[in-house]
Write a structure and sequence with these properties.
Length: about 170
């Protein structure tokens, strides 16, 4: 075992040890009951997602790929960078996702008529069928579960989830 001579200088600290980390300030919720309720809802939503992930053919797609595919199918032709921004991922990550979706026959690329250097991504008919649930066992199962809710409950659920998404995106 080597030891340093008594008067030798300590090696400089790595940059990550010396820089001060700045983390976003957590939003403080003083009410413990509200925090308990938030934790319970958070875990319930996670459980719903896990149950849906383990059913059906969209299971062959990662959650990120399924989300990107649904965005392109619903929003029409998009540039890769615009899709990455909507999905809140980096362009290289979206590029990998898009390449996989293209190889699976769910997306096509064509030149952007406004900028020949850019490409537009479009969903294929197979993608539309998968996203709309026509060929998706996962969506079929979810639709069957939604049948246990009254129409006003489904609308309330949709509205509440859209409000949560908006609050989380801020």
């Amino acid at each position: 075992m080597r030891t340093r001579p008594p008067n030798s200088a300590k090696p400089p600290a790595r940059e990550s040890e010396t820089e001060e980390r700045t983390l976003p300030e957590p939003t403080s919720v003083a009410d413990p009951d509200q925090l308990t309720e938030a934790a319970e809802l958070y875990h319930t939503i996670g459980r719903v997602i896990r149950l849906l992930r383990h059913s059906g053919d969209l299971g062959s797609l990662s959650p990120g790929a399924a989300s990107a595919l649904a965005t392109v199918a619903r929003s029409g032709p998009l540039r890769l960078g615009d899709l990455a921004n909507i999905e809140r991922v980096s362009a290289p990550t979206m590029s990998r996702i898009v390449t996989g979706l293209e190889k699976s026959g769910y997306l096509t690329r064509e030149a952007d008529p406004e900028d020949g250097r850019a490409q537009l991504l479009s969903a294929t008919e197979a993608a539309h069928n998968l996203v709309t649930g026509l060929t998706s066992a996962r969506i079929q199962r979810f639709a069957a579960a939604l049948d246990h809710l009254a129409p006003d409950q489904r609308q309330s659920l949709r509205s509440a989830l859209e409000t949560l998404i908006g609050a989380l995106e801020q």
